[in-house]
Each structure stands twice: as C-alpha cells, then as structure tokens.
Specification:
single chain; globular; 13 strands
Length: 283
C-alpha cells in the first residue's frame, strides 16, 4: 500500500485541529503589516489580524512560501517513504502552486504531485480533506487525485464584501472590476469561477446577500444533500444567520463548518466578509 501525505497551504483556512485530525500539513503564506512579517495561522490569527488591518498605515502585503520552504516539507516526507500530494489555491489568484511545482521538480515528480485546486479557503479545504480521507483509506495516488478532482468539479464558493477597496488595492480585482463605480451603499457578491473572482451580483444589504446565497444553492444543488462551510471576516452574526438559513433549507451532510477567513485572504477581502463553500455530496 502506498504511503501518501497530503499537504496544502494556509489559504485553505483549515484550523490546526482539523489539519491534525486528518493528518494534513499546512505550509503557511505570510502577511506583512507595518513592517512586520507574520506567518499566516502560525504567528497571527484572524482575531489578531482584523484589528491590525483597521489600523494599518497602508494595505498589508502577502507573500507565498519560497521554493525552499516547499522543498524542505516535500523532502521531509519523501525521505520517510511517502508520496506527496500537495493541493493549493488557484493559480488565477496566486503563483503559490507554481512555486510548489518548482519544488516538486527538485524533489522528484515521481514523489510529489502538485494540484491547482481552482479555489481558495474552504473551496480548497474540502478537496484537501477528501484527499486526506482517501489517502488514509489506502487508496492509490491516482484514486486520491480522482476523489479530490471530483469534489473540485462540484464545488461552489460565494462571498459578499462590505467594500471592494481591499480587493482593488490588493490587485485581485480581476473581472470584479465591472462592479467598480456603481457601489455606493451596495454590497458586491462574488463567485469563484474557473479559478478567479467573477461578479455574482450586487445587493443593498447583508440580509439580501444571504438570501441570494441560499437561492443560488437551491438552484445548484436542488434537493441533493450537500456539504457546507460558512466563513466570515468580522461578520460572525451574519455567518450564524446564514448557517441557520442553510440548516432550514437543505439536507446537510455532517455539521456545517464555521470558520474565520484567515489573514492572507482577509487582506484582499477585508472586514465584513461572509461567504459559503458547498458541494453536492456523493459522486
């Protein structure tokens, strides 16, 4: 039986507890605020980050891991006889996956497989958990990759913003730039599609945003059971409301995961963000 280690990066928004439970290793990105650099999820938590963001003299910057960071992690597991599967945030949003691929070539492409998830946050995390679960069950590398790909093909990720300021200043605006100039008292809705942010609509209140999310979920999943994660950046009340709406409207497999959007993503989305990642269960 192949020994497989599943690795991801901190933009998955996986908690340490969840990572330990599934045997997942997380390689952190970093965020620089007021001249100080912090490893995402290691040196700084969302609770610490958002107050710092509000008081920052300029927009914080984010950095991906270096090739050497990945090489060290890959070599550590490869030297123990593991085959490594490393899943990362979308190439359309970061070159992290390209750096991981460079490191994999150095360590050995026969030992390390790097995957572009096409998503971030729990759009990525669900794929990582599926891969880790399949690996723990003794599946082959091919079958583990197939299982993760199946989740990716069913995944949807939606979120609303209080403002496009952070997304624009951080250079991640992409096709969402179509919403600029028309957003006075408007909350933009964004969907991750083909690995990038695209406009999903605009509403005048957070309540309307939550309703739009649930309606999209109905249109997409129908009556099928779904797996769901709800996240927020300083918007816990809205996240709780969305969870309650989903519980009333859908057959949820397991519990809804509630998470806080981490610092690296939070730099670009800002406070007041609320979103949902979901996919129909089953193959």
């Amino acid at each position: 039986m192949e020994k497989i280690k599943v690795i991801t990066d901190s933009t998955s928004d996986l908690s340490r507890e969840t990572a330990v439970r599934y045997g997942i290793e997380i390689v952190p990105l970093s965020v620089q605020i007021n001249g100080q650099s912090y490893l995402d999820g290691v040196d700084i938590t969302p609770d610490q980050f958002y107050p710092m963001l509000a008081e920052a003299e300029s927009l914080p910057k984010t950095s991906q891991p270096s090739p050497l960071d990945f090489i060290r992690v890959f070599e550590r597991w490869a030297s123990q006889g593991y085959l490594v599967i490393s899943l990362h945030l979308s190439r359309g949003l970061s070159s992290t996956v390209d750096t991981a691929r460079m490191a994999a070539e150095h360590v050995g492409p026969d030992r390390v497989t790097v995957v572009d998830s096409g998503f971030l946050s729990w759009g990525l995390a669900f794929q990582v958990i599926e891969a880790a679960t399949a690996a723990a069950a003794g599946l082959s590398v091919k079958d583990v990759l197939d299982r993760a790909r199946s989740v990716r093909d069913r995944m949807e990720l939606l979120f609303s913003l209080d403002t496009l300021h952070y997304l624009e200043k951080g250079g991640r605006i992409g096709k969402v730039s179509a919403l600029l100039g028309s957003l006075l008292n408007i909350k933009p809705l964004i969907r991750v599609e083909n690995g990038i942010y695209v406009p999903f609509g605009k509403v005048r209140s957070q309540a309307q945003a939550l309703e739009r999310f649930v309606q999209f979920m109905r249109d997409t999943a129908g009556s099928r059971p779904i797996r769901v994660a709800v996240g927020h950046g300083l918007a816990a009340e809205a996240a709780q409301k969305l969870m309650a709406m989903i519980e009333r409207s859908f057959q949820v497999v397991g519990e809804i995961t509630l998470f806080e959007v981490g610092p690296v993503i939070g730099v670009h989305t800002g406070p007041g963000t609320v979103g949902v990642a979901f996919y129909p269960a089953g193959s």
